[in-house]
Amino acid sequence: MFADRLDRTRSLMAEQGVDVLMLSVGADLPYFCGYEAMPLERLTMLVVPRDGAATLVVPRMEAARVVERPEVFAMRPWDETEDPTDIVAGLAGSAAVAAVGDHMWSRFLVELMGAMPDASWRRGSDVTAPIRSVKTADEIERLRAAGAAVDRIAGRLQRGEIELVGRTEAEVSAELGRQIVAEGHDRVNFAIVAAGANAASPHHEAGRHVITGGEVVLCDFGGTMVGDDGVGYCSDITRCVYTAEPPAEFRELYDVLFEAQAAGVAAATVGTPAQDVDRAARSVIASAGYGEYFIHRTGHGIGTEEHEDPYIVEGNREPLAAGNAFSVEPGIYVPGRWGARLEDIVVASPDGPDPLNRVDHRLAVVT
Ligand code: ZN
Ligand code: ZN
Ligand code: ZN
Fold first, then answer.
1. Ligand 3 mean position to 202 CA, how many Å?
2. 97 CA to middle of ligand 2, Å?
3. Looking at residue 267, what is its pLDDT?
4. Could you tell me the pLDDT band of residue 367, with boundaries at 50, 70 and 90?
5. Percent helix, strand, coil in the chain (nearest 5)?
6. Is the N or C terminus of the chain more exposed, i.e. has fewer CB atoms within 10 Å?
7. Average per-residue pLDDT in the chain?
8. What is the arithmetic mean of pLDDT over 307-319?
9. Quick one: which ligand is closest to 307's CA?
């Protein structure tokens, strides 16, 4: 699997004139070799020459963490007194065009630029995103398992089995985090809990606000499930509940959101330009008069990273491919009052849109 992924990347490198690909911290590295770099100051880097064998440059003290895969990459542990930048530059040889992972830290890149003064630099995603964004059947099943896990948590939320009233947003967020892990994830990526007027801020940081009866509570949460091969896949879901019978005005807003999200999912068919999914959801919200309150794109790709290609946004004319996995998550945010978002992960499949989140999409009333 890893060797095949690297082969396909090398074909893209050849097409695009990239001589060497370098991957460090972030999701590219585990995707291509099953090892995730520790996000620390010592350099870990997979060096992939277009026409040569890949080498993982790793601090000697961390080498024992690596599951060795000699058929995929050679190991080059470095000692504390060696200069890892020189080692990487040596492996890159006379590369004229180097692509570096999008999440590589500038401290590594700046040093590499010094050690390879004649190279020109490209984003790694130019040659990794087209591969990562098309999921295999196995990857889709892993995303589906992660989706089913957060569905179970959302179901408990909707049935009132997660206590809300009287607790702070931060306490509920911590509880969601515990459940994300209990349901089989290896890490929690985020657990947004936004109540009342805070729900008008799409990326609200769960805080000290004590949830009361008669508020909307927006919960957007997800984590990463890491497989035996060291590669993790993410979940991401948003559901809203109301802590009393909601006012008619909020019901109206939510009905529009519900319809918009369903329209976005229905539009997510193979061959449809990504921006048309955004348009399908947005037009429902706009024609109901809430257009100015939908202040973000409709969705993002998901896989080993919680946000990746393809982005479901106006201007992305790229047609959806079979195997693309992405969120459909329109929202309506009325500043100072309230807000709502409804999010599922959807796979564009040859048989049509395949939503990985199936838990109830209606507004749940919990008292
Ligand atoms: Zn988000
Ligand atoms: Zn989300
Ligand atoms: Zn999302």
1. 10
2. 36
3. 98
4. confident
5. 35, 25, 40
6. C
7. 97
8. 98
9. 3
Beta strands in 60-211 (DSSP E): 73-78, 97-100, 120-123, 187-195
What spacing in Å lies between the alpha carbon of 82 and ligand 2's midpoint? 42
Return phi, psi of residue 176, to 5°: -60, -40
Distance (Å) from CA 123 to ligand 3 centroid? 23
CA of 212 to the centre of ligand 3 (A): 26
Q: Nearest ligand, CA of residue 345?
A: 3
Q: Which ligand has an atom closest to residue 328 CA?
A: 3
Q: How far is the CA of 145 from the centre of ligand 2 (A)?
A: 16
Q: How far apart are CA 19 and CA 48, in angstroms?
A: 9
pLDDT tens for 164-173 read 999 999 999 9
For range 92-116, the mean pLDDT: 96
Q: What is the pTM of this model?
A: 0.95
| 132, pLDDT greater than 90 | yes
Nearest C-alpha neighbor of 19 from the set 10, 6, 27, 28: 10
Mean pLDDT of 332-345: 98
Distance 191 CA to ligand 1 centre (A): 10
Q: Are 62 and 38 in contact (CB under 8 A)?
A: yes
What is the CA(108)–ligand 1 centre distance, in A? 28
Q: Give the ligand with the smallest distance to the CA of 305.
A: 3
**In 10 A of CB 4, how many CB atoms?**
11
Closest CA to 61 of 46, 47, 40: 40
Q: Is the pLDDT of residue 329 over 90?
A: yes
* Tokens of residue 329, six digits: 């998550």
**What's residue 177's pLDDT?**
98
Model confidence at 231: pLDDT above 90: yes
Measured between alpha carbons, how far is 237 from 221 in angstroms, rounded to an integer? Answer: 6
The CA-to-CA distance between both ends of the chain, in Å, stands at 49
Question: What is the number of H-type helices and E-type strands within the chain?
Answer: 9, 18
